[in-house]
Amino acid sequence: MKKWFSGIAATVLLTSGLLAGCSGKTDDKAGQGAGNAGTSAPAASKEAPKAEKVKLTIGSWRTEDVDAYAKIIQEFNKTNPNIEVEFKPTKNTEYNTQLNVALQSGSGPDIIHLRPYAAGAQLADAGYLEPLDSIKGLSSFPKETLLAATGSNGKVYGVPTVFSATEIFYNKKIFQKYNLQEPKTWDELMQICETLKKNKVTPFAFGSKEGWILSLTQGALGPAFYGGTDFMNKVVSGQTNFKSPEFISSIKMMKDLTPYFPDNFVGIGMDDMRNLFVTEQAAMMVMGDWEIAVMRKANPDLQMDVFPVPPKTAGGKATVTTWVDGSFAVNAKSPHKAEAMKFMDFLTTKEAGTVIVNNLLKPSTIAGIQAQDPLVAKISKYADTQSTPYMMVVYFAGGNPTTKGTLENTMQGMYQNMLTPEQVADKVQQSADTWFKPKK
């Protein structure tokens, strides 16, 4: 989706999902006719038995997407009626552990939903994934996109399906009630927050209970303060680091937003955040596009829209934060690799891209796919023209503990008044120093 994807180095720890998924046999031996030379009667021939169905399982962390994948699989079955595919997701917080345990025991799902970048590379490097050399459709994907599922040997192990974009969702009805417009600068956004607070409306649905919410929110809002892609490139090349004033200002900004968060936000998780927004108790929420379908299901009457994160100063560029979110790979131990490869082939087609974008409601990785949904189309346009990378996912999800995890944990400490923004930045840099090598 963007040139900045090139050079992607490992990040994110992958995975998890269990579920061994395999049944049925692929043997298809046709009966042979017996011809008897020298006899007057022709030999009877046996009718070839119908091909036996093969069952594939897909492991994933996306429990919210069961209905969408039912439609995706239905599209696949139009040309592959003898391959039964079952989407068996595992709870997000349990997926990594369960998948690793299953793979280490030689089992696991036939098709694996890979978390992006380093996570996928780690599974590939461990020998758990089958290289996709035979999937011709991958040649139409930009190298920058494929890097999200590329192993350290340069081979591609996953088919990227969708991009993720993080922006600010807002309630159109609440904005109209208080005569609020989409902000063009950070100061305008803060004025909106003040107006909402004075009218006893929670400006942001937010909680610090789950660490990933913190890195996601900082990854979306932070570029307005640290300088977006230009700053990221300087960090990656070693020209600056996380102890810089720019990055510290992005952490301080997160702390300064506290008055606009819900009461007791330190105990609020994703489910509570979503509930605050869809029940119209909160006017805005910083979140990824994957929540669109979930929120609409929770409240079909919700009037929501999105806007990019406004720049800190007038004349700056508004941004949305983007990355490749998830690829599908084939388990190297699957007894049905040939059939699983057919599903990989399918994922590279425009037919798949169309059904995916219109059911998962996320920008497609396949060029030329137009979203029918106006909101998804709007997000896709922002992602094409105003994107900046989710730095902690794309480059800094390595280390033990990961640098991304260190940011999350220390920000939780900051919200409990245990750490200052400067101390958060210092600990993030200490983590990066243990493993990250600048790319000259």
Q: What is the assembly state of the chains in this entry? A: single chain
What count of structural domains? 2
CA-based shape: globular
CATH architecture of the largest domain: 3-Layer(aba) Sandwich
CATH topology of the largest domain: D-Maltodextrin-Binding Protein, domain 2
**CATH-wise, what's the superfamily of the largest domain?**
Periplasmic binding protein-like II
Keywords: Signal, Transport
Family: Belongs to the bacterial solute-binding protein 1 family.
Protein name: Sugar ABC transporter substrate-binding protein
InterPro entries: Bact_solute-bd_prot1, SBP
Folded structure, characterized:
Residues 28-48 are annotated as: Disordered. With 440 residues, the chain is of the alpha/beta class. The protein folds into 2 domains: 3-24 and 51-162 and 325-366, 3-Layer(aba) Sandwich (D-Maltodextrin-Binding Protein, domain 2), CATH 3.40.190; 165-321 and 396-433, Periplasmic binding protein-like II (D-Maltodextrin-Binding Protein, domain 2, 3-Layer(aba) Sandwich). The protein contains 18 helices and 12 strands. The protein has helices at 66-77, 92-104, 118-125, 143-146, 172-177, 186-198, 211-221, 223-226, 228-237, 245-256, 270-278, 291-298, 337-347, 350-360, 374-385, 391-394, 403-415, 421-433, and strands spanning 22-23, 54-60, 83-89, 111-114, 159-160, 163-171, 202-204, 282-288, 304-307, 320-324, 327-330, 387-389. Strands 1, 2, 3, 4, 5 and 11 form a 6-stranded mixed beta sheet that branches. Strands 6, 7, 8, 9, 10 and 12 form a 6-stranded mixed beta sheet that branches. Mean pLDDT is 89; it is low at 1-45.
